[in-house]
Amino acid sequence: MRPDTSSQCRRPSAAARPARSTSGRRAWRRPRIPPPWPPIAHGSRRCCRRYQCGCTRCTGVRVVEVDAANRASLLADPPDADAAVTRTPGIAIAVRTADCLPVVFCDRRGTVVAAAHAGWRGLASGVLEATVRAMAVDPRDVVAWIGPAIGPRAFEVGRDVLDAFAAADAADAACATPLGDGKWLADLPALARRRLARAGVGAVAGGTWCTHGDAARFHSWRRDRSAGRMATAIAIVTGA
């Protein structure tokens, strides 16, 4: 599996490329963000075309499965979904984000990969848990990587967001820091880790890059109010 987050479709460095597993398919290795680059408009659209399948985000929990039979139709008409799963080598799936969480998944045997777009509404509604279920493997064998998203020092939210997360687990409110006047700073990566842990996911990495605070590398809707997006993609690669 090759996770890749880029606004320019850059080839991952050697350090970011996966190692071969005993099954002959590539095993997951923690990806690295490339050095700073100037944002390029519509770069992630080129990425999604290259990566063969992307989703039209709907801040929900719908997960689509991509295979050789439906790949062309899904590419021509991207589905209204926030996550996708594939078990077919050579098909890469991508999600586009600019502050929301991109999360990619694989199982340790390299038989299934998934990508999810997790805005706060989708995260609170259970899009990550739905993605893990759609992979149809033991969650303890799943590895997840959280890509660049707005960080805990920049994501200011109101009571509605806090209540949405506390509804699932009151302890999740600890992932928000009060600012006063009915505002909090929410830690989306921490909330994602908590939900993935409750879903039984075996390992979680990433979640350390803030899109809002790093204009040299990342688009941020809250910072720029622009249409710029990054694409995060993953695929099963064999025979390479």
Tell me briefly what this model is:
This protein has 240 residues and is α+β, with helices and mostly antiparallel strands. The chain contains 7 helices and 14 strands. The strands form 4 sheets. It has a 6-stranded mixed beta sheet with strand order 4-5-8-7-9-13. Strands 1-14-6 form a 3-stranded antiparallel beta sheet, with helices on one face. It has a 3-stranded antiparallel beta sheet with strand order 10-12-11.
Describe the overall structure:
By secondary structure, the protein is an alpha+beta fold. 22% of the residues lie in helices and 25% in strands. The strands form 4 sheets. A 6-stranded mixed β-sheet has the order 4-5-8-7-9-13. Strand 4, helix 2 (71-76) and strand 5 (83-86) form a beta-alpha-beta unit. The model is unreliable at 1-23 and 26-53 (pLDDT under 50).
Strand content: 25-35%
Largest sheet: 6 strands, mixed
The parts where pLDDT drops under 50 for at least 5 residues are 1-23, 26-53
**Overall pLDDT, averaged?**
77
What is the straight-line distance between the termini? Answer: 11 Å
Order of helices and strands: EEEHEHEEEEHHEEHEEHEHE
Radius of gyration of CA atoms, rounded to a whole number: 17 Å
Number of helices: 7
Helix content estimate = 10-25%
Q: Structural class of the helix and strand makeup?
A: alpha+beta
State the total count of DSSP E strands: 14
What is the 3D shape?
globular
Name the strands of the widest sheet in spatial order. 4-5-8-7-9-13
